[in-house]
Amino acid sequence: MKLDLLVIAVHPDDAELGCAGTILSLVAQGKKVGIVDLTRGELGTRGTPEIRLQEADAAARILGLSARENMGFRDGFFRNDEEHQKALMVAIRRYKPDIVITNAIYDRHPDHGRASELVVDACFYSGLRQIKTVDNLGADATGLEQESWRPKLVYHLIQDRYIKPDFIVDITDFYEKKQESLLAYKSQFYDPKSNEPMSYIASQEFMEFLRARAEEFGHVIGVKYGEGFTVDRTIGVKNLFDLK
Ligand SMILES: [Zn+2]
């Protein structure tokens, strides 16, 4: 199945935190969107890998995703090397996305910057036909040799640490539903009834911070809520009036 947009991020919930509003907006326009989680987030303070997979499935339904895969890389210890690049190329070549969104170029969590480099490299090498791959990913594996495919553009999330965005997407109409997708991760975020240990992202302050960040990004483009992105190369637009 060909997708328009594939979000490839290291921890289940990175995609929702960084760009659920953008995903919801594109799905509402009829675009096909998928998420590839690189790890099961097994080093997270709260929850278990099994619970987080169920939560990711629940969030996928809220977002209206066409596909969601988990690469099963090791949280914290995956590397940007040939083995991981080739594994990821299988997903990129299967879904043939025009656009890829991945982790922040650097962040508080060192996995984010490393995942960002891995995804950028895998997107490039995926376009080289001399690198052979076979579709062996998950239950839908065909076992067939794959064609090369290079996404046209790779955008980066802005996650915990502030990075000046290169562009901002208006997500005003989708902020409440974004929040709903985050709350699907019951083990991870603020829940006054939880008996799990407190973590950085499980506090009420963290949810308030997320809203404040979305308001700040929305404010600078004259809307209520926004999601910011960075891009490695200069982007262009056909119609000046598409910009706001
Ligand atoms: Zn993360």
TrEMBL record:
Give the GO biological process terms.
bacillithiol biosynthetic process
At the top level, the lineage of the source is: Bacteria
The protein's matches in Gene3D superfamilies, at most eight in alphabetical order, are given as:
LmbE-like (3.40.50.10320)
**Which GO MF terms are attached to this record?**
deacetylase activity; hydrolase activity, acting on carbon-nitrogen (but not peptide) bonds, in linear amides
InterPro entries hit by this protein: Bacillithiol_biosynth_BshB1, GlcNAc_PI_deacetylase-related, LmbE-like_dom_sf
Which PANTHER family does the record match to this protein?
Answer: N-ACETYL-ALPHA-D-GLUCOSAMINYL L-MALATE DEACETYLASE 1, N-ACETYLGLUCOSAMINYL-PHOSPHATIDYLINOSITOL DE-N-ACETYLASE-RELATED
The record's annotation in NCBIfam families points to: thiol_BshB1
Specify the protein name. Answer: Bacillithiol biosynthesis deacetylase BshB1
Task: Tell me which species this is from.
Answer: Larkinella punicea
